[in-house]
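PT: before anyone asks, these are the final sequences, not the draft ones from last week. 221 residues across everything. Please model them as a single complex and drop the result in this thread when it's through.
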Amino acid sequence: DGGITQSPKYLFRKEGQNVTLSCEQNLNHDAMYWYRQDPGQGLRLIYYSQIVNDFQKGDIAEGYSVSREKKESFPLTVTSAQKNPTAFYLCASSASVYEQYFGPGTRLTVT
Amino acid sequence: QKEVEQNSGPLSVPEGAIASLNCTYSDRVSQSFFWYRQYSGKSPELIMSIYSNGDKEDGRFTAQLNKASQYVSLLIRDSQPSDSATYLCAVSGGSYIPTFGRGTSLIVHP
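LR: through. Structure below.
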């Protein structure tokens, strides 16, 4: 089955620790995206990549980093510099100009 | 700053009624318009996309686009309790990076 997977589903970390969220897709999509969603808020774009080995900052990139070494994978690292990291993180992919498809999400809690 | 506006709701409709969800956008060069459904605690699921003025129907769902008025809507006919969710409107233009609205909460009561 084609789709987008994110792992883990739930993640708990202590403040000051870096954490990496996984996102893999087998849809052969060129573009991949990371969003953050907070309660009662819309989706806010963190980073996106439209081609392997290239990525761009979104609206709220501070405190986050990404890599795109393979077409299928777009991991997100939440660093200790991110002031409020507790959130629902969503990965998406798209075939260039078309609609995005989302993974199941990772719920990160930092205490 | 590109903006996509939705009434946060909740919009409450009885089972079997038509639910009408609305979205306005600020960027006049927007080209692609999407509706996503998001159940509580889950990720968004694409339910409709529309690219040209007019209506597009898919089962119980109809998307309506009016570029002159910068307005896109989603109609859900014969609403069911299982349609209760938050509906996100997304709009993209030349950059192909969509801007999402905050969503409208829909409650369908038996």
